Amino acid sequence: MSETSPAGTERATLDSDGDGRARLFKGEPKTVQLTLDAGESIPPHEHPGRDIVFFLRSGAVDLTLGEETLSLSSGDVVRFDGDQDISPAATADSEALLVLAASSE
């Protein structure tokens, strides 16, 4: 959940007690908190027209992007094109922050 100051600054707190996905702010860019338990994954999907930044705050995730799989550990940050199949699979309890921005191209 976020709050907005009189100056228009938005602030949100990352929450570990959700359903696994929480949108942090309204509007653009889309900012999402993702929590996955060890062994949990998200089926391949796309975010057409988006550039995505995936910051793994804690845990370990195998992030499949198209035909490539990246093994990420806590603190890793990846930026990629959303016009491909994307599938994160947690190999440990994990928390990530994703920013999905409209593609500049």
TrEMBL record:
Residue numbers spanned by region Disordered: 1-24
SUPFAM superfamilies referenced in this protein's UniProt entry, alphabetically: RmlC-like cupins
Protein name, UniProt field: Cupin type-2 domain-containing protein
Signal peptide start-end: none
Protein origin, superkingdom: Archaea
Pfam family, one: Cupin_2
CDD domains registered for this protein in UniProt: cupin_RmlC-like (cd02208)
InterPro entries cross-referenced by the UniProt entry: Cupin_2, RmlC-like_jellyroll, RmlC_Cupin_sf
Segments of skewed composition (Basic and acidic residues): 12-24
Limits of the Cupin type-2 domain: 34-97
